[in-house]
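Entry 0007
Protein: Oxidoreductase
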Amino acid sequence: MDIRRLTDTLSISPQISPVDLATLAGLGFRSIVCHRPDGEAADQPTFREIEQAAAACGIVARHQPVVSGKVEDAQALAFGQLMDELPKPVLAFCRTGTRSATLWALSQAGQRPLPQLLDSARQAGVDLGGVVRRLANGGRTPPDTADARHAVVIVGGGAAGIAVASSLLARQPDLDIAVIDPAAVHYYQPGWTLVGAGIFAPGQTARTLASVLPRGVHWIQAAVAAFEPAQQAVILDGCRIVRYEQLVVCPGLQLDWGAIPGLADTLGRHGVTSNYRYDLAPHTWQQVQALARRGGGRALFTQPPMPIKCAGAPQKAMYLSADAWRRAGVLDRVDIQFCSAGPVLFGVPAYVPALMTYVERYGIGLNFGETLVAVDGPAHRATFRKSHPDGRSTLEEREFDLLHAVPPQRAPDVVRVSPLADANGWVEVDPATLRHPRHENVWALGDVAGTTNAKTAAAARKQAPVVAHNLLAARGAARGEARYDGYGSCPLTVERGRIVLAEFTYGGALAPSFPRWLIDGTQPSRLAWWLKERVLPPLYWQGMLKGREWLAEPETV
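Output (structure tokens):
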């Protein structure tokens, strides 16, 4: 038998036979539901045979015949009611299990998030793409009409989305573009590191989304529930349908705070903080100052498994905090520990010697192969899973006075369960053209793209003109093909006033923007700090988000 679990109380399977009932009883099933009409196939036992065998084993059997490919709304409602009544756990079956999974999902629509329904079915080997609109419409069949149509639809109003919209309009000012994003505020996230060090005020990193949207762009303030690339449609919450000619997907990534037991409950309390959230970055600075006033303590800085946005950000928080304790005269009484799931300090070796100089200067303990797996805030204890070279793993407990935690990160659920996703859940794209290999009118950029470059705002700044050019070329409005080389930049703030400016492309090849005599990115630089503090914020707000491609013009072939 091929039994596949949907929930704790419901599993599905292909057709079963009467002799299987004893096995099912041994597995603990208390009820079964047959969704095949009798006589659907020549090799199919009748429900009466199944029912008699079930009764002999003490299993409740119900017959809800459903014609293949014709699951009706009322049948889904009836299955939901049946599930409320039957003893649990339940096994539902049909020819392949698809009908049973479809009935379950439709009965749960509106009660469970759509991505969760799609993901549970996918893990059970069932593709529910054909009923996505019904699921988004609360399990009911919606009218097959579009609420809106646009030439270009951009999903995501973050750095990548606004930049690509502006780059498109800079090339074709009359292009019909819609941006879909439910947020009301747009954040300059690279600035949160400096907020956490008391250098920027939080307000310097936030503006209303309406104020940064390019003039003429339609803003659809809603969340995306599903993608239907075969129908050139995006489904919004409430089952509104937006059709497109070209689609750009850039909703960023998802911070999975709940993946670490105890972390979400203690954020902002008990010395636990993170620069990865707007409201917590100021708390980081408060905790750094509090530790200095206490005259020392233990500070833990964590980094989860890759990929994460701005892979250097966990270290930036650590170096700036250590520098603040040095200036306060308490550094020698602060035990600083860097606990990273990765095997090295930084993925591009050329920058490691400069970083190690500061690790030694600040007396930082390096703990590679350690992943944060639990936090007990009131007890001030963090638990790590340590991976050993021989393949073993052990649990390590560390006490802390300050914990700067970085959560695991993944593609948004709506992307991960969509037809656009690659095997790891990110949007599948050609790494050079950023075009989807199977859906030729779909592009992706920014953190959600399934590319191997560093997930940074600098990468999105380089990617946006590439997507803009190639999208317009696909529409016949541009010539040639633009190519992205994997450029990413990570200004590593090693102390207040100095930065190691890491710039690199695919494969870790160095890609400096300035001559070495001006800024040597492998060494700490005051000029690089000036760029980070004074130049990059206006370059972001007035350059990147306005379609001005300074140092980002794409090369075409």
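Curator remark: The radius of gyration is 27 Å. The first helix runs from residue 21 to 26.
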